[in-house]
């Protein structure tokens, strides 16, 4: 079981309130991602759940029991750190066995569990090595192995992939998702990368300045962002925002159009403009188009075969079914 | 770009460095030579000293007159004891300051270091009286305590800088893994800090071994270490150069040999963790 409930949890460092009181419900078996720009309090929130920081107010329930004042080790949670935090002087085997050793498990039991975790994580050949002799991806797997053997109520991941290179990151992302499907244990995952959030999460929690901006499934956030911040944060490349007469025409202060919901044409359309920089990804091409009507250039997505050059005249037409409207406070209009 | 150094410039630098090194080492070398000369030859002109015959008689005389082994064991006990006791206190202190710093931690560290700036003679009388009243004058345990106190600020400072190099996340990981504070320090922190601790231990053994002020003032016969052993040769009977030299060599040889073999660790220790 791994149900986690936060009731009015807040955190201040001295005078500075980094997390104003917030409520959050994490269901058993869910993969929840905390996402937000750096300094938004997502790691602090995770550390509060872990027990590495004390809450300034409110309570944390784990499986219905008040865990607010329980020390980290007794909460039944396992954490994977950004820096992996492996014990450099211990072999991989000893690293993975460490929590079991602390729990006082006998040697035979320890070995059995370590071998099992090593098999799952493809580490069987590296058990006698020291962390210094492993690659980044392998180290990350050792850190995960150390978490798995404890059979925790929930896994906490603190930006676990940010020290890996891009290719490895995609691979590890899949591995962690796969692991979640297999173990069906609650996972809380902190990242600043919205792609990781979108691809892995059952539920995304978008944070800004310690406040929860929106909670929902990846597609909910993508389709119906509650405010400008979420709209701009979720989706890549980010949503285009337009204010002024074009927005007023649609009874809004600001309208948002995603690059993938804008049509480009060379002969007809709503907004005439000039092509600026283009980014060819092969499958897609992103054009930055300076429209006559707006100050900021808009990003639009076109197929990989569309070949427009710098300075070409084009017309953009937003897909009205996927237009997002926001009021003066930046909140979504129905 | 690496700076270009031409060969003649380089050999000049080497020559200067070698000369300076020789000048600094010369007194030790001269003591070594004198210790193998007879008492009469030792006071002659330098050239005569060099050409005179070699003899071990001074070493024999020194061993006969004073029990070298007893003083040696006192030195060993005092330096190891004070270092061990110091570590026992310094590890928790440095842990606390490195990983759970408070607002005034830096000030506390500076204050501790400032005690090293006080001339020891300023507190000689009170400490002497305390030792007398406690009945620990001329005891090894008394010296262990006083030398530990003298070196404690350095031990704490050194350990503090080493601990600071250990990422806090690793200790947090240990805490998440269920390690108690004792287990965290014992199984994770200490093994990781071993290189740093080794240089701390080495430096403190050397400092305690060479310490002369307290060891001379607080001992008589029983607990006197090698420093007192040398001092006893600069005595009322007049100076006996050869015997004094032999005694000096016997006193500094063990620590010199130890220092020689642990140079690398020591350099790391003396730079206070600034160089990795």
Number of domains of chain A: 2
Unreliable spans of chain B: 272-276
Number of strands of chain B: 0
- Report the total helices of chain B: 15
Order of helices and strands of chain A: EEEHEEEHHHEHEHEEHHEHEEEEEEE
**Percent of sequence in beta strands of chain A:** 25-35%
Number of strands of chain A: 18
> CATH class of the largest domain in chain A, please?
Alpha Beta
Distance between the termini of chain B: 23 Å
Number of helices of chain A: 9
pLDDT average of chain B, as an integer? 85
Largest sheet of chain B: none
**Mean of the pLDDT scores of chain A?**
91
- Gross morphology of chain B: globular
Rg from alpha-carbon coordinates of chain A:
24 Å
Structural class of chain A: alpha+beta
> What oligomeric state do the depicted chains represent?
heterodimer
Strand content of chain B: under 5%
- N-to-C SSE string of chain B, H for helix and E for strand: HHHHHHHHHHHHHHH
Low-pLDDT regions of chain A: none
Q: Would you tell me which CATH topology of the largest domain in chain A applies?
A: Rossmann fold
